[in-house]
Amino acid sequence: MANSSNLQQAAEAPALPTGIFQFILFCTAGFWGWLVLMLVFETGQAAGSILVPYAVKAIMDGVANTSATGMPILESLATPLLLLAGLNLAEILFSRASGAVLVATGPRLRRSTANALFAYLQYHSPRYFGNHFAGALAHRISETAISVNHTLWSILCDFWPILVTFAVSIFLLFGVHSDLGLLVGGWVLVYISISYVLATRCQRYAQEYAAVRSHVNGKMVDAVTNILNAKLFARLGFEREYLDGYLQQEVKSGQRTFWYMERVRWFQFIAAALLKLGTVYHALTLWDSGTISVGEFTMSVGLALLIINDARNLTRRFLEFFEYVGNVANGLETIVQSHEIIDSPHALPLKVTHGRVEFNHVTFSYDGDKPVFKGLNVVIEPGQRVGLVGFSGSGKSTFAGLILRNFQPQQGQILIDGMDIQHVTLDSLHEQISLIPQDPSLFHRSLKANIGYGRPDAGEEGVVAAASLAHADEFIRAMPEGYDSLVGERGVKLSGGQRQRIAIARVLLKDAPILILDEATSSLDSVTEKTIQENLDRAMGKKTVIAIAHRLSTIAHLDRILVFDQGRIVEDGTHEELLLRNGVYSRMWAMQAGGFLPEEAEPAASGVREYAD
Ligand SMILES: Nc1ncnc2c1ncn2[C@@H]1O[C@H](COP(=O)(O)OP(=O)(O)OP(=O)(O)O)[C@@H](O)[C@H]1O
Ligand SMILES: [Mg+2]
User: Fold this and answer.
1) Which atom of ligand 1 is nearest to the CA of 612?
2) How far is CA 215 from the centre of its chain?
3) What is the residue with the minimal CA distance to atom 24 of ligand 1?
4) Among 396, 406, 523, which residue has the most ligand 1 atoms within 8 Å of its CB, making it the best to mutate?
5) Nearest bound ligand to CA 389?
6) What's the gap in Å between 396 CA and the centre of ligand 1?
């Protein structure tokens, strides 16, 4: 689905607009009733507080007249006193009613914005997640959701009441005398304009300050993440100084911003003093000439004070407003980008019946420059179990990633059972291919939840059975909380081999017809590996299997071995055939002496070289 800005967006993701204004409208879609109610309450509150000087005027005029009429004071002032009480009550009720609406809407609005952004984020490609830090993205989502709220509250609870206050007071002052109305009205216009201009000037400093703070924060996160490294290298002191260097930058930038704000305050205080003195002086002259009453005099001064009170923080409010809007813009820029890999409009669900995988003239490069594969052709027959070997960086993981459509080849097609994976739904593709990645990562949830992830209906027994097959049951039971144990962020509380076994169990449970193992057993000791290998072989059954391994013994028994070198398949055959051929594979096998591949090929030995990655 494409929106007005012509982004390529996944149909399942919410169609988020990229414009700030449109985005805020989108987020507030279900909340209009509440927001209008809030506007009404805020108007009521502002009107209530601005009319207080009007009631005081009526009281003052009443006091001035009592001596003339001789009536008891409370009796003659009953109406204005009631008005004053009523206005105060109204102010309280309106402001608290607005508070209640804020409580009722605010958190829900944040939730709906965060939900929409997260749902949009989910459909980004692996490349996108490779280019952005997970922590930074999570922070962006919550920051954007908060800022949408703050932008709205700025408008509804700051700017709107100020506008009402200014408009009503100027109206009342015109009622007293047009001179006073003109004086204060003119002042308000000039003041708002100057405040706005100052705020836009200050915005540059404020943004720079925010950027420095976020940069320092990044440095802090990196330092905290690597604290164990710092300890291992006994560089804790260095880290403190390193961080302090950045904190010093923050001080400089902060002071620059705050000095500017100080200058703005000078302007505000002087402008306020001028308005106070001007109003008092002018109202006094009008009273002196008998044009206005004592009450009107008091009201005029009271209104001027009220305006000053509201206007005091206008520059700061503008600044905050810019900041919130800036945050929303930032969030949109980061998250609401084109989805790189989406279902084509007429995508069909893939139904794997045989499990034939075909690469047809596939050319692929990560950066559009140096291709990993150039016109690669290969067919993996249904139910075939294929081992991929080759030096580090030769393209094995990339090959697996392309089958999962993590990336889009620049040329050629990848077909599964004759269907181009470009034209099948991603969900159906991922449901029918299981991958045990090179560096499996787990949710910080219970082991049970992690193992059962691919099959939520598996139940306790299913989970335990899969764990037993993956040789994980034993160590899980030995943990104090067994299957309910939490595994730490990305699974850090488990050993590398334990984490790998959980990843195997979760894939065994998912039981998809195509299985890709990328170094699935590389962190296991040979004894454990052998046992799991047998279970894995059994689980493979009639599945199509692609197994990547550096330890050749793990794949030697498979139906077929493909030897990768710099994105080309240089040898293809069974273990025995390849040994007989006396080529790359047989040399690797000999060098490994049943163990591991050497770190590097002997340069003269063959065309096989490791190239830097
Ligand atoms: N996300 C990526 N972005 C850009 N380049 C990448 C990315 N992933 C891999 N590459 C590059 O693509 C080439 C092939 O990498 P690949 O991960 O497929 O190698 P591999 O055969 O799996 O190596 P290893 O045995 O070390 O896992 C390498 O040169 C690598 O630097
Ligand atoms: Mg790899």
Assistant:
1) 29
2) 17
3) 392
4) 396
5) 1
6) 8
| pLDDT score of 64 | 78
**pLDDT below 70 — which residues of the chain?**
1-5, 67-70, 593-613
Task: Give the phi and the psi of residue 594 in degrees, each rounded to 5.
Answer: 75, 0
The Cα 52–Cα 168 span in angstroms is: 12
With a 6 Å cutoff on the Cβ, whether 365 touches ligand 1 is no
Beta-carbon neighbours within 5 Å of ion ligand 2: 397, 438
Give me the half-sphere count of Cα atoms (radius 13 Å) on the Cβ side of residue 285. Answer: 8
Q: Which atom of ligand 1 is nearest to the CA of 401?
A: 18
* Per-residue three-class SS string for 383-444: CCEEEEEECCCCCHHHHHHHHCCCCCCCEEEEEECCEEHHHECHHHHHHHEEEECCCCCCCC
Amino acid of residue 493: K
Helix (H) or strand (E) holding 377: strand 373-380
pLDDT score, position 609: 37
CA of 33 to the centre of ligand 1 (A): 53
Ligand 2 centroid distance, CA of 392 (Å): 7
Query: Is the CB of 393 within 6 Å of ligand 1?
Result: yes
DSSP assignment of 46-88, as one string?
HHHHHHHHHHHHHHHHHHHHHHHH---HHHHTHHHHHHHHHHH
| Each residue's pLDDT tens digit, 442-497 | 999 999 999 999 899 988 999 999 999 999 999 999 998 899 999 887 777 888 88
User: What residue owns the CA closest to ligand 1's atom 17?
Assistant: 397
Q: Is the Cα torsion angle 13, 14, 18, 24 positive or negative in sign?
A: negative
pLDDT in tens, 388-438: 999 899 999 999 999 999 999 999 999 999 999 999 999 999 999 999 998
Helix or strand holding residue 21 (H, E): helix 20-27
Query: From the CB of 130, is ligand 1 less than 6 Å away?
Result: yes
Tokens representing 504? 């195997």
Q: What is the pLDDT of residue 215?
A: 86
- Asked if 424 and 348 touch (Cβ cutoff 8 Å), the reply is yes
Collapsing DSSP to helix, strand or coil, 163 comes out as: helix
pLDDT value of position 70: 66
This prediction's pTM: 0.86
Residue nearest atom 3 of ligand 1, based on CA coordinates: 366
Atom 28 in ligand 1: residue holding the nearest Cα? 393
Q: What is the DSSP string of 534-554?
A: HHHHHHHTT-EEEEE-SSGGG
| Top mutation candidate among 394, 546, 608, 609 for ligand 1, by most atoms within 8 Å of CB | 394
d(CA 456, CA 454): 6
Domains in the chain, CATH or no CATH each: 20-335 (1.20.1560.10), 357-442+510-592 (3.40.50.300)
Closest ligand 1 atom to the C-alpha of 396?
Answer: 21
